[in-house]
Amino acid sequence: MAVFKKDFLWGGATAANQYEGGWNLDGKGDSISDHLTVGSHKVPRQLTRTIKEGTLYPSQEATDFYHHYKEDIALFAEMGFKVFRLSINWTRIFPTGMEEEPNEAGLAFYDKVFDELHKYNIEPLVTISHYEIPYALVDKYNGWESREVIDLFFRYAVTLFKRYNGKVKYWLTFNEINAAIMPFGAVLGTGTVKGYEGPNTEIPDKKQERFQALHHQLVASALVVKYAHEHYPDFMMGNMICYLLSYALTCNPDDILANQKSMEILNYYCGDVQVRGEYPYFAKRYWEENDIHIEMKHGDDEILREGTIDFYTFSYYMTNCTSTDPNQKQTAGNIIGGAKNPYLKASDWGWQVDPQGLRIGLNELYARYGLPMMVVENGLGAYDKIEKDGSINDDYRIDYLKDHIAAMREAVKDGVDLLGYTPWGCIDLVSASTGEMAKRYGFIYVDKYDDGTGDLSRRRKKSFEWYKNVIASNGEEL
Ligand code: BGP
To answer: Which of 125, 300, 306, 471 is deepest in the core (most CB within 10 A)?
Structure first.
């Protein structure tokens, strides 16, 4: 019996800041990711205030969707994509974020992209802001710490709605909005790094700033959702959460409680606001104990209440454990690490692979919110090797995805309403955390390397054919 819906949205996910390139073409301004240098698993990326001559900033060219979109979309179509997740580069539309009028050349680029997608009946799923705040707003306002940015974002989003109405139906407001909870989120998430220059791993931990900035993002998100509901009733408006499932390492109640508290703040703080329209009951104590004083304007609570989302989306890569024992072995993870789980193996970047966690997570989230769900990022960052005959045999990636799709299938059987699945970096792109090309996720290999070399040619990996068959069989044949 078929498990996934007949019109299940199979596809892939990307983000402009890691994929698009063309960073200074046709009037585009620079975004924060254009100021981040290349790094590696061992060497952190540097954020620089100015663009330094002779330094490599991998997002600037990335894997050049800007000039390859036709070829890439044809490849996605060949795999049978029903949906393609991409983000719009804010600075392509409003170069500093502050212009009164949008940049027509920027708008025209995405028109071409959406038309190309529709040619193949691929539905665009658009993230309005994915780690690419205009750098000018960082400089002027300390990013989202300033309330001014709400209006600028609103203007940007409304410009997109007006222009792409009829071409785009599925919208996500902010990528991984809960990144702001973690120090790392100050760079790519909230842009609260005015004047900062240095490694992206050593940003001073300014919780007050980040939580204030996050409040502004939550209000901005709700405002545009409310606006869309009022003006474009056909739109489906979603959020996007970095879902960081963790388990208590032991059955010691201290560990259980610590894990519960960490899950609340990392995973549910933002989602609760975006789905239920108000801050959760546990927020107040967290603010008090962390000396966080959020300035809210009269009317904010009403906006949050009126701008709740239609569907819930999240990224899922790995899980960690929570332990109150400071001597426990630690491991890395997406944005944040945790205690090592003795039952799981990890990727080469130390992210623990846990397919079953996806089923657990889908059930947890669906029980909490009862909204249709979409897994909009998932995948294995791995080193790929081109064989002498030109093939790339990424069986490790196939295994990872196979197990995760099987887990989703179980979750659907459990009763979760799942709309779609867009594995991350369906074509190779720049890693957000390390700035590497060596950490690849794609079904499609791009000839581009960490020293900036490469002719950007595309080639199909073994997983390409495999995924094509998964889609053709609607997830029955894995
Ligand atoms: C998510 C981000 C993506 C993406 C992914 C993989 O947190 O939304 O932008 O990059 O993680 O992470 P990385 O690129 O660090 O391997």
So the answer is: 125
Q: Are 357 and 392 in contact (CB under 8 A)?
A: no
Assign 247 to helix, strand or coil.
strand
Ligand 1 centre distance from Cα of residue 431 (Å): 6
* Res. 1: pLDDT tops 80: no
Q: What is the pLDDT of residue 331?
A: 84
Whether the CB-CB separation of 170 and 236 falls below 8 Å is answered with: yes
Would you say residue 97 has pLDDT above 90?
yes
Helix (H) or strand (E) holding 359: helix 355-369
At 111, list the tokens.
Answer: 């028109």
Q: Which amino acid is present at 189?
A: G
Percent of the chain whose pLDDT exceeds 70: 100
Ligand 1 pocket residue status of 189, Cβ below 6 Å: no
Catalytic residue from among 176, 278, 306, 364: 176
Nearest to 358 by CA among 294, 413, 315: 315
Is 306 annotated in the active site?
A: no
Q: What share of the chain in percent tops pLDDT 90?
A: 95
Q: How far apart are CA 452 and CA 37, in angstroms?
A: 11
Mutation to probe ligand 1, out of 19, 433, 437, 441 (largest number of atoms < 8 A from CB): 433
